[in-house]
Amino acid sequence: MAKDRKSKPKIPLVYKPVGFALGWASGALAGVAFRRTWKALRHEDDAPDALDRDRGWGEILLAAAVQGALFAVARSVADRAGAKAIERSTGVWPAAAKGGRD
């Protein structure tokens, strides 16, 4: 049983670089997806920023909501795919029984 305890904490350490790489890649893809989605929704190349003086609250909040949703989906896909890959290769799920990142 002591050997089991020692091997479990090592899996999250192995997962960290994998999770980091997947998180970075998913963030980049989410950024591309957001720019394309915004262009399809509003027919504009540039999405509004919270500090854009010429944009209204509705437009800024819409952009933030769309961007947040896309980044959350990309993060979840990357986290889940990475965890499944680690589980397939090691036989151990890389997170605590209850937990995850949050």
UniProtKB/TrEMBL annotation:
It comes from the Bacteria. InterPro entries: DUF4235. It holds the Pfam family DUF4235. Keywords: Membrane, Transmembrane, Transmembrane helix. The chain crosses the membrane at residues 12-34, 60-78. This is DUF4235 domain-containing protein. It comes from Streptomyces caeni. The lineage of its organism: Bacteria, Bacillati, Actinomycetota, Actinomycetes, Kitasatosporales.
